[in-house]
Amino acid sequence: MSQTGSNKDVSEENLPSEQATAHEGAMGVPPRTKSLGEVADDPFADPGLPPHEPRVQDIDKRAAKRSERTVALLFTVSMLATVGFIASYVVLPIDKIVYVWPFGHISALNFALGLTLGLALFCIGAGAVHWARTLMSDEEHAQERHPIEAPPEVKAQVMADFKQGAEESGMGRRKLIRTTLFGALAMVPLSGVILLRDLGPLPEGKLRHTLWSKGKLLVNQNTNEPLRPEDVGVGSLTFAVPEGLEEDDHDFQKEVAKAALMIVRIQPEDIKDKRELDWSHEGIVAYSKICTHVGCPISLYEQQTHHVLCPCHQSTFDLSDGARVIFGPAGHALPQLRIGVNKDGYLEALGDFDEPVGPSFWERG
User: Fold this and answer.
1) Using CA atoms, how far apart are residues 348 and 137, in angstroms rounded to an integer?
2) Are 233 and 172 in a shared domain?
3) Stretch 112-129: mean pLDDT, rounded?
4) Polar residues composition bias: which ranges (predicted)?
5) Which among 10-14, 199-203, 252-256 has the top mean pLDDT?
6) pLDDT at 37
7) For residue 83, what are the β-bridge partners?
8) Same-domain pairing of 28 and 112
9) pTM for this structure?
10) Fewest Cβ atoms closer than 10 Å to its Cβ: which of 66, 312, 333, 365?
């Protein structure tokens, strides 16, 4: 028996490849794959496009009309949602809190804005998808690849295909869809325009004026006491605020951000800028504490060089030379406040800063 089996194996090995493959199939053995050197006639044959099957809307005009009304309804809902967005933004107070399951207590304004804007955008997308899937032509056309620079006849064919697609989309004859689509697309951007209100009113002259005015006393920010000239020693750095500005005031942070002042005493002979000398009192000079780069508070003073340093980005100003910039990204010198002494011997402002404090802005002169 073993010899017979051996003879069978040998006979199979001697069969030609095609016969061996057929023999293996007949014996219940999976046919052998082609060797590495053998290539099939067309291993990547294009199966072609399946036959086109018409949709209900292609056959039944009433179904097409229903789809058209559905698309128009979605676009109309988008327009109504945009109106709801604008109405919510105008009507709902910013601090109103409501309970919405399952989110819990949330801002009524944020919830209404997100809901209405999301609905407006969703309905435009859903309407466009439903329009494309039910009313636009869904026939597939295969075309051989062509060079990147198409010949004139291909360009003409593309334009013809585009015109045909525009015709098949029904944009020209389906006026209801066209009108509501344009309405929805035209109204959605209004949501972004309305949001511009959050930028607030124009600053007008608010950036050019602070609480400093003629006769305002310089109050020590640490002791909350008016300053006398003898309170400011040579080499010291003192921070001051205008008289009447209290920490519990509603707009304290906004006002102190513009009016914060630093005061140093420099020997008059060390002051290089003549106007700085005229605006000082016995070598006591007052400059804005707000860096002209991005508005950080300046707090580091070098006594020997009369330089002040911003800790944020290392802008350095020379207080003995008009607080000009000697290093760093700041764009211009610190604004100076003209000071004097009143009849009671207290330091007082003789006006406001000579220019706007803080970083540069477009309208700055």
Assistant:
1) 81
2) no
3) 96
4) 1-20
5) 252-256
6) 46
7) none
8) no
9) 0.49
10) 365
Q: Is 110 helix (H, G, I), strand (E, B) or coil?
A: helix
pLDDT at 363: 58
Residue 289 has pLDDT above 90, yes or no: yes
Same domain, yes or no: 225 and 122:
no
Give yes or no: residues 180 and 84 share one domain. yes
Closest alpha carbon to 287 in 306, 303, 268, 267: 306
Alpha helices in the chain (DSSP H): 2-14, 17-26, 56-59, 61-91, 108-134, 152-169, 175-187, 189-195, 252-259, 274-278
Element (H, E) at 218: strand 218-220
* 187 vs 86: CA distance, rounded Å: 10
Same domain, 123 and 224: no
**Nearest to 225, CA basis, from 238, 212, 214, 210:** 238
Q: Give 27 or 273, the one with higher predicted confidence.
A: 273
261-265 sheet: strands from edge to edge:
218-220, 237-242, 261-265, 284-288, 336-337
The predicted-structure confidence for 213-242, as pLDDT tens digits, reads as follows 999 999 998 899 999 999 998 888 999 999
Q: Given this model, what pLDDT does residue 115 score?
A: 95
List the one residue out of 108, 127, 124, 131 whose CA is nearest residue 189: 124
What CATH code is carried by the domain that includes residue 307?
2.102.10.10
Domain identity same for 175 and 214: no
Arithmetic mean of pLDDT, 283-301: 92
Contact 319, 306 (CB under 8 A): yes
Please give the tally of structural domains in the chain: 3
What is the chain's percent helix, strand, coil content, to nearest 5? 40, 15, 45
Q: Which tokens in the block code for residue 121?
A: 């955008």
